[in-house]
Amino acid sequence: MQKKLEVKGMVCPFPLIEAQQAIEEINSGDELIVEFDCTQGTESIPRWAAEAGHTVTNFEQIDEAAWSISIQKK
Amino acid sequence: MTYLIITGLLCGALLGFVMQRGRFCLTGGFRDMYIAKDNRMFYALLVAIAVQSVGVFLLIDLGVFEYSAGSLPILSVIIGSFIFGIGIILAGGCATGTWYRAGEGLIGSWIALAGYMLMSTMMRTGVFGPFNQQMQQSTVLPKNSIAETFGINHWFIIIPFVLIVAFIVYKQLTKPKVAIPSLKPKRTGLAHILFEKRWNPFVTATLIGIIAFIAWPLSAATGRVFGLGITTPSANILQYLTTGDEGFLNWGVFLVLGIFAGSFIAAKASKEFRFRMPDVKTGINSFIGGNLMGVGASLAGGCSIGNGLVMTAMMTWQGWVGLVFMILGTWTASYFVFVRPRQKAMAAKLKEQVTPA
């Protein structure tokens, strides 16, 4: 199962906070795909995911100042 | 004038570049101490303070320029710093952060910047000037320099401080690390390091400390004996634009314009520039935050750079007391903006589960 979270236009730390809330709502092993355009999120979101023990299955820049990260819940 | 323009712009551009690439965000750093129990960016700030402090006091001891910290309007510093702290959470970035995010194309930061420049001007030569003057003259302590208060040489404060910071950095670097996923590299060599790679916050902080140090002799050569500063120059821009008086153009003005340019160059080259329009709520918060930043920084005599990075390095009460109250301000605002809404949402969800419809 995949869940998509579109947080473009939100400034930090809201993309991270939204991602933290969204991952609570999915089951272990499911994936959360976060699309964001807050530059500082390129640091804070993968760091949170790694430190919380989730697996980052994909992390890429999809456009000028736009990124997508896929996080598999532990 | 040419010297002033060139060195100011260059120093600012370097700073803007390093801050953009290093994701150096003091607002985020102060906020995360509270909401994420993460002190990394605060430690990075201490590194930048230490580097600058050693450099600048060496120059002062060598007689390159003279500096006196003067007296301390303690009440104004405390109140101003606290208001500034609230403002930067609402604006989503401190004064420098707002300048460099404006360079990344964030319209929200342009809005915050407008409020910040307007209020900083109003607090100087505008309607709130007399109020600001009055605040600056109430509850003034005679000595601002910590070393002078205790009647000791400044190195007795700087050296222990540097040792503490070195110890913190050592502890942080030897901590077991989690591998943090990074973007697949698309470039190689220097282009990869400059425009793609994640910068270690301590490397970024060391570079910022060096730039903050270089700013002193560059600025002193133009007659402005101070280091990095954001608030007064931001007001000076508006004062110059509205009065046409060239007296308002100084080294600091070109410094802040340089930050904007440097960040734009860094963002553009890293494919991180795009005009981004905030939603209504973010836009309003940015404007209110920008105004509070202008009031706060004017009362406190400095923003997170002027007080938090420079006056701290000069080992003054203004710097350190200002930094503490600025951080308390960010925590107070963070509670209302981030923590409480989350608690409310969780409580509402819990209630939903207990009483099924």
TrEMBL record, chain A:
InterPro entries: TusA-like (IPR001455), TusA-like_sf (IPR036868). Residues 5-29 form the UPF0033 domain. SUPFAM superfamilies: SirA-like. Belongs to the sulfur carrier protein TusA family. This is Sulfurtransferase TusA family protein. It comes from Ureibacillus galli.
UniProtKB/TrEMBL annotation, chain B:
It holds the Pfam family Sulf_transp. It comes from the Bacteria. The chain crosses the membrane at residues 41-60, 72-100, 106-131, 152-170, 199-218, 248-267, 288-311, 317-339. It is found in: Cell inner membrane. InterPro entries: Sulf_transp_TsuA/YedE (IPR007272). It is a multi-pass membrane protein. Keywords: Cell inner membrane, Cell membrane, Membrane, Transmembrane, Transmembrane helix, Transport. Belongs to the TsuA/YedE (TC 9.B.102) family. This is YeeE/YedE family protein. The lineage of its organism: Bacteria, Bacillati, Bacillota, Bacilli, Bacillales.
